[in-house]
Amino acid sequence: MTKQPGRVPAAESDEPAVDAAVPDGGPTPAPWAAVLALLALGWLGAMLWSTREAITSAAAGITAISLSAFALPGVISAALVAGASTALAGGNLLARRYGDRATLRFVGAIGAGMVVGLAAALAINLTYFDTSTTNVIAGTTAAAAIIGGAVAGARTAPAVGAVAAAALGTLIFVVAFSPARDPLFDLFGAGDTQESLVNAAKWVSRTESLIAGLLAGLLAFGYLRWARRRAVRHDPASPELRWPAYLLAGAGPGLLLLLAEVIIRIGGRSLLDLASALSEADSVAQTSLGTSRVDNGIWVLFVGALTALIAFGRTLGPAHADDEPADTEPAETADDEPAGADPTAADPAR
Questions:
Q1: Are 259 and 81 within 8 A, CB to CB?
Q2: What is the distance between the terminal CA atoms of the chain, rounded to a whole angstrom?
Q3: CA-CA distance, 65 to 276, in Å (whole number)?
Q4: Contacts of 129 by beta carbon, 8 Å cutoff, 6+ apart
Q5: Cα separation of 63 and 57, whole Å?
Q6: Most confident listed range (273-277, 299-303, 317-321)
C-alpha cells in the first residue's frame, strides 16, 4: 500500500524533466552551419573578386557597364546564400546559449545578414572603381544578404540548411558547367544560321537546368537525412521531418534563384537599364538573359522538389507490414480452439 504513492511522484517527476529539455535544447540545429557559412562566404568573395577583375580589365565606360550587368546575378545569388548560411550559424549559437526564442532567433538572423551585407558593400566600395554602377552593385548585394538572413530565421533550421547547401552546390555547378556548353552547342546542332543557334542555346539551357535541379534535390535530401541521423544520435526521441520539409528543401534552391531575380530587377533596375540602353543588341541580350534566368529558376524549383520528394519516398517502408501477422494469428487460434476442444472437458459436471 505504501509503494503505490511512492511511484506516482516518480512518474510525475519524469514528465517535467522531458518537457524542460525542449526549451533548453531549442529547435533542432542545422548541422555544420559554421562550415557551410565559411564556404558560402568564400563563394561570395570569389564572385566579388571575379566581377572586379572583369570590370577593371575592361575598357572604362560602356564595356564596364555591360560586364557589371552580366555579373550582377551571380553576385546577388551568392549574397543570398551567404546571408542565409551565416544567419544559420549565428542561430545555432543563440539557440545553444538562450534556448528556443523565436523573436531573438529572427532578430539575430537579420543582424547576421546585415553584417554580411555591409561587409560585402564595403568591400565593393573600397576595391571597385568609383563608377555609376559601383553603388548599385553594393546596395543590391547588401539587400540580398539581409533578405537571405531573414529567410534563415525560420524555425526549421535543418530545412533552411538543406536549402542553403543545395543552393550553394547549384551555384558552383553552374560555373563548373561552363566548359561543357560549347560541346553541347555542337551536339544540339548549332550551325551558321540564327535559328540553329537559338534552338541549340535553348536545349543547352534546359539541359543545364535539368542537371542543376537533380543536383539540388539530391543535395537537399542528403543534407536532411544527415541532419536526421545526427539528431537521433543526440536524442533518440527527436521528431522526424515529414515530406513537406523535403519538398520545400528540394524546391528551395529554385526559389532562391527566383528571389534573386526579383532583387536584381528591383535593386539593380538602373544598372540593367543602362546596359540595355547601350545598343539594340545589348537590349536583346539583357531581355534574353532575364528570361533565361527565370526559366532556369522554375526548372530547378520543380525538378529539385520532385527529386527530393522521390528520394524521400524511397526511404519509406510498406505501411502496416509488421501488423499483418499479429492480426491474423489471433483470429486463427480463436477459430481453432472451439474446433479442437473437448466439450466434456470444459464442463466438470459432465
A1: no
A2: 43
A3: 10
A4: 55, 56, 60, 64
A5: 10
A6: 299-303
* Predicted structure pTM score: 0.79
How far from 143 is each of 32, 98, 177, 260, CA to CA, in Å? 25, 28, 28, 10
Comparing 42-46, 244-248, 253-257, the range with the smallest average pLDDT is: 244-248
Closest to 213 in 3D by CA, of 179, 242, 249? 249
Split at pLDDT 50, 70, 90, the class of 236 is confident
What value does the CA radius of gyration of the chain take, rounded to a whole number of Å? 29
User: Among 44-48, 185-189, 219-223, whose mean pLDDT is lowest?
Assistant: 185-189
Q: How many CB atoms lie within 10 A of CB 6?
A: 8
224-260 in b/e burial notation, b at 16+ Cβ within 10 A?
bbbbbebbeeeeeeeeebeeebbbbbbbbbbbbbbbb
Over residues 44-76, the pLDDT tens digits come to 999 999 888 878 765 555 677 888 888 899 999
- CA 25 centroid distance within chain: 23
SS3 content of the chain, % helix, strand, coil (to 5): 80, 0, 20
C-alpha cell at 108: 539575430
CA distance 117 to 111: 10
